[in-house]
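Ticket closed. Logging final result for FimB/Mfa2 family fimbrial subunit.
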Amino acid sequence: MEKKILKNMLVGLVLPAFAAMTGCSDRQLAADTEGISPVKFRFRTSAMTGDASEDSRINDVTACRFEDGMLMEILRLQPPDASGICSFDTERMSGILHVIANASSLEAAGDLEPGKTTLADFLRMEASADEMTADGLTMTGKTVLGQAAGTVTDVQMTRSVARLDISSEEKDVHVHSVVVRGLRNSGPVNPQESVSPDGGVPVCDSDKQEEGGWAFSGTEHVTDFSDSPLHNGYRTLVYVPEQEGVAVSAEVTAAFGGALHRLTAELPAKIRRNTVYTLAVHGNGAGISVSVLDGNWEAGDSSDSSPSLKGLVDVDNSVFGDGVRVNATRDTVFVGHLENDFVLSLLAEPSAEVTVDGMVRGVEIGFMPSGGKTLVPAAAVSVRSALRMPGRGAEKIHLDVREGNVHSGRVVLVFGANPVKIDGILRFDEEGICDFGRYVDGELAVISLPEGREFSLEFGSGEASWMKAEEVQAGTGMRKTGAGKSYRLLGGWKPNDPKADGRVQEGMLVISDPDGSDRETYAVRRLNWGLPVVKMGETWWCRYNLRGNVRDFEDQITNGMDPAPSGGLYEMLSSVPEDELLELMGDQYQAGNTDGLPLSHDGTAFFHAGMKSQAMNFGLLDPEEMAPEGYRIPDYDDYAFFSASNDFNIGGIGERSFNNMSGQSLNVRIAERDVNFLGHRYGTVSFYDFEHEGNHWTLFGLGHQWNTDPGKIAVKTLLLATYGNSGRTWVMEGYASWDRPGQNWIKFAENNSVKTRMIRCVKTPVEYIYE
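Final structure:
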C-alpha cells in the first residue's frame, strides 16, 4: 500500500469557478447565432511514458478570446469528440484565443470578466497543485483566430504542472520511502513568457516570483512504500506547479545489498511545466545511487499551436544503421545492443547549441562538422557504440539543446540491453572478459537467454571443469526470466587441489544456436587458491591456523606449501624444529583487525605485537570477514563436533575415544612439547589429534593473551574464534601433565572480546565440488 502524506500544505477553497464565470452564461451558448462564426479545434496533448490516459484526458474546456490585450469573450465548450475535435461559436473571428482544459476547480478563474480582465492579468493567474489536478490535469494552449469558418485548427495543449516519478527497475533494489522537500504550493497556470509590446502585457519576471507572492510554505511530500516496497517498476509521486529559484531535494530510502540506504538528490533549479522528472534508483555491485532524469510529456515550454524546433531528430537527414530507431515524437533514439555507427541530425533554432550529458562505456559521440557544436539550424552528431556485453542493461545519454542559458530541448539516446540477462556477480568488460582477480566460488550468476539460444561451457587443455551450468527448470522456485532458457552458473571447489596456488583459471561461456552455429564466446577468470582441509563429519576443516593478513592467501599455508600433505601432522609437530613450529602455530587475532598479532619478546616477557585494549566481537562480526575468500569463522555447531558437552574433559596425554554431542564416535590423541621460541623458553604446548572415520584433524596453538601487558599470556589455553555468540566462545583449556595430569577441557565459556583468539577456518559450503 502506498501512503501519501502532505505536510504544511496551504489548502485553498476549491470552487466551481468556470461554471459561475461572468460572460459564460446559457445566453452565450444558446441559439442566438446571428453573426456568430463556428470554430473547430483539434486538441493535441503530449504523449508520455506509461499509461497516459489520465494525464492526457480532457474533461472540460474553456476558451478566452483576447483582443488588444483585453478579455472580450469567455466560451464554455463541450469536451472533444472521439476524434479530438471541439466545436464552438464566437462573436468575432479575431484576436488570440487562450484555451484552458480541466480548469473547473481553479479559484482564480472566478475573477475573470470580459471587458475588465487584461491579458496580463490572465497570464499571471495562479493556482495550487490541488486545484490544477482536481478535475484532471489543467492544460493550456493558444491559437490566433482568423481562419475560415469550419476549418479545423490544431491546438497544442501543455500541462500546467510537472510530474515527479520514482523509478526502481533493477531487481535487487527495493524503495521503502521518498521524501521531497522544498516544493511550492502554487504556481502559474499559463506559461511564463514575454508578450508582444503592442499587447500591453508585461513580462512575468521569474526573479521576482518571491516578491510576486507565489505561495511557498516549505511543503514536504512523503510517499511511504514500506508495506510493499517498490521494485521493478515506477510510481508517480506528486504533481507540482512550475517553480524556479528554490532548492528542491529528494531523499530516497531503499534496500540494496542486505542493507537500508538513505540517498539524496537535488532536482533542477527550475521545475518546468509539462515535464516529467524521474528519481531513478540504481544498484550494482559497487553500491546504490539515485539520479534525476527529466523527460517531457512533449515540448514542455511552448503552448502555441505551431510546431517548435527544440531538439528533435531530423529523420530525413540522419543516417541510421540496423538496430537504430526513432520514436514517434522524434525526441528519443533507441540503439540496439550490437555494434552501431550512425549519424544523427538534430533540428533546433539557429542560435542553439548542443551538449552531451552523461556517459556510457563503449559509446563515442562527436560533432560534425568538426569543432562545431552550434546548430545551423540542423547539426549532425556522430554516434559509435560498441557491442554491449551480456548482462548490461539499458543506459542513456542526453543531447541537451540550449539557447543561451535556457534549456530548450533534449534528445535521449537509449542504448538497449543485451538480450542475454545476467543476475549475479558476473560482469564482462568491453573485451568480453570477466576477470574476478580473486578466488570466488558458489553461484556466480543466473544467465537468461533469448528464445532459441543455448548455453555451454568450454575449458582449455589441462584445465579442470571448475565451473558448472545448471538449467533452471520452471516451477522449481528458482529465478527464471523470459521465454528462453535460464542457467545457474556455479563456481566450484576442489579440496586440497595441488594447483590451487594462486594461478589463473579460465573457462569460456558459449552462447549459440541449438546446432552450435552463431557462437558467442566470453571468458571468465579467477585466481585458484586453496587451504589444506580435512572433512570431519559434514564440515571441511582447515588443517592450519591463520597467520598474517586473514584475507590474504599469500600469507597462509596453502595447498602447495603443506608440510604434511599425506597426513602425519600430529607426529610432525612433536619433532619439527622450533622455528618451523612457531611458523605453523600461526598468529593471534582480535576481531575487526585483519592483521595477525605475531608473537614477540621484549627481553623480559612474551607478548603479541599490535594487541589493542578494545576490539570488535567475533561472535557478532560477519564470519567471512576474518577469513580468506571461500572460508569462514566456525560457529558453535562446528566446534561442538569435537566435544561431548559444553564443558568436557578429553583427558591427558595418550589416546582414548568418546561420543560427541551428536552421538558420533571420535578418537583423540594428546601430546606435549616443551619449547623455546625467539630464543626464550615459552613453556609447554599441547597437540590434540581428533580422528573420525579415518580422517585426522589436529588442534594446536600459542594459547592467548588476556590484556595488553607483556607476559599476560596463557600458553595452554587456546581461545578459538567462534561466530554466533557475543559473550561465549569455544576454548581448549589445557594443562601440562606435571601440573594437572589427565585434564584437558574443551568448553563453551564466557570470555571478553579483548582477549586474543587463534583462527582455524572452515570452508564455506559449496554446491559444486569438482575432481
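The radius of gyration is 37 Å. No further action required.
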